[in-house]
Amino acid sequence: MKSSFNLVPFSANTAPEVEITGDIKHHNNQLEIEYKLTGDLSQLIIPKDKDTPNRQYDLWEHTCFEFFLGIKDLSKYWEFNLSPAGHWNVFCFENYRQDIAEEMTFNILPFQVTQQANKLDLNLEFNLGQIIDAEQNLEVGITTVIEDKEKQLSYWALTHPQTAADFHDRNSFLINL
Q: Which domain holds residue 124?
């Protein structure tokens, strides 16, 4: 099953003039996600690969591509953070913002980043079998944090159902796979 997405900023007044689109696909318990960030990237702060990519905390404090996976009718969900610099992390929550733990079944997330003047692509493909059974129905929230040259963050998602940006809100997990 494949779905395309187009993220919207929480506040258009504070968001840079960029577009974030992509595709997500779930087949034989393989998940593939591709983000496409287009626009004047010179106005953004995009982390560069300075170190060997590894698991890191607080990636969302800078430009970071994220997605959330939940199992239909269960409160448990996972948060995946992917920095354009290659760093990553995965967290598991037992309920809405509760009982957070690093998901240690992953030692690496194999994603690639390519960047041109006005376009950045991030592609990830991995097996979900370590955390989710193939027959389970997924609910997905796709999000991105963008940092501009003034170090201002903007929050992008499929939808923003709350009065504050909240990527953990299951009402924003709009894609069913």
A: 2-176
